[in-house]
Specification:
The complex is a heterodimer of chains A (114) and B (111).
Chain A lengths: L4 E3 L2 E4 L5 E6 L6 E7 L6 E7 L2 E5 L7 E4 L6 E5 L8 E8 L8 E2 L3 E5 L1
Parallel strand pairs in A: 2-11
Antiparallel strand pairs in A: 1-3, 3-8, 4-5, 4-9, 5-6, 7-8, 9-10, 9-11
Chain B lengths: L3 E4 L2 E5 L4 E7 L5 E7 L6 E6 L5 E4 L2 E5 L5 E6 L8 E8 L6 E3 L3 E6 L1
Parallel strand pairs in B: 2-11
Antiparallel strand pairs in B: 1-3, 3-8, 4-5, 4-9, 6-7, 7-8, 9-10, 9-11
The chains are: A mainly beta (114), B mainly beta (111).
Amino acid sequence: EPEVTQTPSHQVTQMGQEVILRCVPISNHLYFYWYRQILGQKVEFLVSFYNNEISEKSEIFDDQFSVERPDGSNFTLKIRSTKLEDSAMYFCASSDLSGRGEQFFGPGTRLTVL
Amino acid sequence: GQQLNQSPQSMFIQEGEDVSMNCTSSSIFNTWLWYKQEPGEGPVLLIALYKAGELTSNGRLTAQFGITRKDSFLNISASIPSDVGIYFCAGQLSTGNQFYFGTGTSLTVIP
């Protein structure tokens, strides 16, 4: 069964450093998303991406964040200058061409900012 | 952002018992999803609901889209130890693609 994959599984970085989190969505999906989950809390939406542009973003997704689809398979989230409060699980998700319905999540990247 | 409240917050039940949990909001949603999350893993989609009043099953799991469109319910029958995890509801508005997640219900099944 097709699945969303993410790398790395765990990223440790120093405050102020840039990080890039990578995702390979399900191959025939056209809508891509990033969510985050701070330890012990609910999942929060960051951004959605369709047709090579951001279609929606939350107030969490400020100028420090950016997303990119650099090739036909990868979808990346960049945090330009990490802060301690960026420590969280980051989940990539994808949905099919309708974009209105089931979103399938990857296993997540645990980001630890020291 | 939208507030989706799930209850109960946690449940401790004996293996074999049935489980009921719900998710409520002040907003009207067009789609409800139910996910299960185990420690250190991503949410796994269990059931999707698209119409008010819809009742959908996936094995021992049954979920309903509330008639008011402001709530949804998940039932698990004859619980087993592998049902342990956190169950999240997620709602999608008529505009936009993002899902708003609930606060979660933590389920512990005692063998």
